[in-house]
Amino acid sequence: MEGKKYAVVDLESTGNSPKNGDRIIEIGIVIVEGNELSKTYSTFLKPEKKIPAFISSLTGITDRDVADAPRFEDRAPEIRGLLEGCIFVAHNVSFDLPFLQKEFRRAGLPEWTGQTIDTVELSKIIRPSAASYKLQDIAADLGIHLDQAHRAVADATATAHLLLALFDQLDALPEETISALHKRSFRLKSDLSPVFFDALKKRRSATTQSGHAVWRGIALQPAASLPARTASEVEFPAGEEDRRQLLRRAFSEYEERPAQIGMMDAVHNALQEHREIAIEAATGIGKTFAYLLPAVIRAVEDGRPAVVSTYTNHLTEQILEREAEKVSRALGMPVGAVLLKGMQHYIDLERFAGILETEDESYDETLAVLQVLVWLAGTETGDLEELNVSGGGSLFVDKIRKFRPSVIDPSAEAHDFFLRSVRAAKEARLIITNHAMLLSDADRPQPLLGDLSGLIIDEAHQFIPAARARAEIVFSYTEWKYTVGQVGRPGDGLLHDRFEALARRCGSPGDREVARMGQAYEEMMDAFDRAFLRIQAFIQSVDDRPHEQKKVFTLNDMTPLLPVCTEAGESLYRWLDLAGDCTRLLERAPGSSGDGGQRFLSEWQHWLREITVHAAGWMELFGVWDSRGAAWAEADMRSLPGSLKIVRQPADVSRIIRQTAERYKETGIVWTSGTMTLPGKERFIADSLGLPAGVPVLKFEASDDFYAGAKLYIVNDMPDILNVPQREYIEAVAEAVVQTVLATGGRCFVLFTSHDMLRKTFELISDSELLAEYMLIAQGITPGSRMRLLKSFQRFSNAVLFGTDSFWEGVDAPGDALAAVVVVRLPFSSPDNPVFKARAAVIAAEGKNPFSELSLPSAMLKFRQGFGRLIRSTSDRGAYIVLDRRIERKSYGKEFIQALPHVPVEKVALADMVLELESWYNGGV
To answer: Per-residue pLDDT tens for 484-533?
Structure first.
């Protein structure tokens, strides 16, 4: 930035649209020169219109403040002069600059021209794992002081410090990364190419090296050396006082919990005696530590690793970051815990390297590529969950996920993040994995999780959907087009043409064979195009719910399409047969392995294998299927056929789960969860898991006073959800949420059962700007993974999180982080859900009632899990608020209440509940 001057601008206005007459009410400009803030300018401006109340609430600027302020045209030459010769910088240039340009035109001055830097865009690139890119949030992450957010000079000053911090972090990147950023930066929205070029010159003149490994021009963190597993001697504490001493070492504020000690004993005995047990462990007993300690002791004694399988990333992080450290303190030795996820969580470096050799398709893809390049220079895990991408960036991340274990380029093996984690697991005492990984590993001829000292399956109830997902067959149009498109039609310049060139050079296969293969490929692509057109036409012809953007159709409805779909599959196999014949001829041809030929053949065979997997899935989708399963197509009506997916799932996965468990029958197995039983259905989850009747289900309850800080509110003046239009119910939900948030100061979860209702409620609240001072985070709307959204919620004291299915359980917000959980609807599964319909049909065929045997208990479990988000320790307090009046009007309502721990239940009007909450959270009783 030497010799350059930056004008960092922030302004406050009467609204968001200069086109609609909104005006500037305050402007702040900070001049940055030579790595210093050299000048600050600030003034109120008279907008000549009334400032809306919500803007005054947001900024603190009132009509009185600007009553005697100058008009913009009075200060326009001065402001224009400050910007001259500067690079224009703002945190969201597309907001600030159009306002200024409109005002300059109104004042009779020419528009400002020059380079711009958007610090939102730059932050996304340089800090690709940041939880949020709002100015307050990114400033807090970097330790930048901002005590008056939404005041122009304070925001401009914070943005100037942010700019300098980002420049420093850019300069620290390896040369290869900066070079790649510069090469692809010309499609960005602000003028970052000169910024990257300056940083590249500086890096090239530096005398120190970055210390990164480089593979195919991509800078990577070198693989960490793996500490060898050391021999140690520990034993499980025999007496009660020995256990207390051990727990005192683990917990700085130890409180005796008999249920925790009881669970420790049960887990220890099961692992020692190689038995299988199930445990329901209530929130508050310290479940994770209770199984982790005996598992680690058993691993040390046995000399083989113990495995803990979970469902949510939050729990895996909790184990690695907090619980393993407690066990380490208790035992006085390192635990040696490593994380091993399924390969789809990791980046496929070879696929990403291939994409780097092509042109980006869109702005979102360009931005995502740059984010990944910077992330790769810093990540030690290669776990794509670390990235915070938005919009089309999420689709790009799905493109670079690792779905197959094969490695085309042998030089990539040392850098493959999934293989790195596998190597680390071989030296570990404790392996933390997820259910998907455990299930897929059981199918491997040589399992990665082979010889174990013990297996703990936490969040055991989630093993059921994990097994269902493992057994499903999914055909994605986008993935199919990407995969089969790698080959290309003759003349496209892709793999087919490269194959033809190599064949001619080697003299085999001949032109005739290659031409037949090319013709078969074209016929196959045409056949699939016909099939997709028929599917698209069918979906559009039965579009009986025009207000819904995402639609689901059972395959039974699509039976007339079977011939054209089968024809497409058969044409694919004809091409694969010809491609296989030609490949064998080329492999035997003299000279095929020299001059890059071997690498091409590896790549060609890789994509043949990928396409073969798609072919098998396609034929199985449209072939004979178990009538007890579910099969459906789903699509977003706004993007056909690109959004098309075709899915099959079995209705009952207990056999699959049992087969997995049998792989580990020589070791102890502990299935545990906070929700394993229901009143009157003690083996509901155990039976769904296929656990034999001889496997006991043990229950460990929290102390009687654990839930003393909880209250259940049933709001009894809400509209009846079944008898009013959806819009009316959503308006009532929005009002209830706003009033609850204002009463509690944020710190709320709002739980939905429908993404559509979540989106409409969120948009209604956002548009009203009644909660403009709060951090509103919405699943499926706010960018980022579930884990990232949760971390954002935990970081800000005034946050509100709107979530659906995955936020009903498996997320922690302890202490004051969570004041209330609002249940918008009782969590019954949609009767249109294909898997639910298939399971209900099986139950009905057995002469049982699907509602009482499946729908009601499943909803009760989820309702109970939602309550479990609220109270995580004896000092917590919070309100569980139910807006769905079916809980008091329907006969089954009392069963929902009975599924919860014993807490006070109040049936109140919304206004009365708000008064109680205000009193409660302001020190009242």
So the answer is: 988 999 999 999 999 999 999 999 999 999 999 999 999 999 999 999 88
Residue of 314, 272, 267 lying closest to 289 (CA atoms): 267
| Cis? peptide before 641, omega within 30° of 0 | yes
Burial of residue 709 (number of CB atoms within 10 Å: 0-12, 13-18, 19+) = middle
For range 125-152, the mean pLDDT: 88
855-892 pLDDT, tens digit each: 999 999 889 988 887 877 777 788 999 999 999 999 99
Which residues, 6 or more positions from 528, have their beta carbon under 8 angstroms from its beta carbon?
480, 484, 568, 571, 572
Task: Give 698 or 793, the one with higher predicted confidence.
Answer: 698
What per-residue string of b and e applies to 263-295 under the rule 16 or more CB within 10 Å gives b?
bbebbbebbbeebbbbbbbbbbbbbbbbbbbbb
Q: Are the beta carbons of 870 and 817 closer than 8 angstroms?
A: no
pLDDT at 924 over 60: no
| pLDDT, tens digit (0-9, with 9 covering 90-100), for 448-484 | 887 899 999 999 999 998 998 888 888 888 888 888 9
Sort residue 680 into left (φ over 0), alpha (ψ -120 to 50) or beta.
left
Tell me which DSSP letter residue 719 carries.
Answer: P
Q: What is the distance between the alpha carbons of residues 400 and 479, in angstroms, rounded to a whole number?
A: 11
Helix (H, G, I), strand (E, B) or coil at 714: strand
- Per the CB < 8 A criterion, the answer to whether 345 and 385 are in contact is yes
Check if the beta carbon of residue 311 is closer than 8 Å to that of residue 810: yes
3-state secondary structure of 629: coil
Structure tokens at 132: 């949020």
Q: Which of 216-230, 371-385, 562-576 has the lowest mean pLDDT?
A: 216-230
Indicate the burial class of 612 (C-beta count within 10 angstroms; 0-12, 13-18, 19 or more): middle
Residue 346 dihedral angles phi and psi, to the nearest 5°: -105, 160
Q: What is 111-140 written as a DSSP string?
A: PP-S-EEEHHHHHHHH-TT-S--SHHHHHH
Number of other residues whose CB lies within 10 A of the CB of residue 451:
12
842/652 Cα distance (integer angstroms) = 9
* Amino acid residing at 192: L
Find out whether 257 and 285 touch, Cβ atoms under 8 Å. Answer: yes
Which class is domain 710-921?
A: alpha beta
Q: Which strand (E) or helix (H) includes residue 455? A: strand 454-457
Indicate the pTM of the whole model: 0.76
Cβ–Cβ under 8 Å, residues 280 and 675: yes
**Which residues are within 8 A (CB) of 462 and not within 5 positions of it... i.e. 6 or more apart?**
311, 312, 435, 673, 809, 810
Band (pLDDT 50/70/90 cuts) for residue 53 is confident
Hey, what CATH topology would domain 5-205 get?
A: Nucleotidyltransferase; domain 5 (3.30.420)
Q: Could you tell me the pLDDT band of residue 376, with boundaries at 50, 70 and 90?
A: very high
Element (H, E) at 906: strand 905-908
Asked if 331 and 297 touch (Cβ cutoff 8 Å), the reply is yes
Per the prediction, the chain carries an average pLDDT of: 87
CA 117 from centre of chain:
29
The encoded tokens of residue 53 equal: 């109340």
Query: pLDDT tens for residues 821-852?
Result: 999 999 998 877 777 877 888 888 888 898 98
The token pair that represents 108 in the structure block: 């009779």
Phi and psi, residue 723, nearest 5°:
-125, 15
For 99-105, the CB contacts below 8 A with 24+ separation are 99/11, 99/13, 99/18, 99/22, 99/24, 100/9, 100/11, 100/24, 102/18, 102/19, 103/18, 103/23, 103/24, 103/72, 103/73, 103/76, 104/76, 104/80
- Give φ, ψ of 404 to 5 degrees: -130, 145
**135 residue type, one letter:** L
Report the C-alpha gap between 712 and 710 in whole angstroms.
Answer: 7
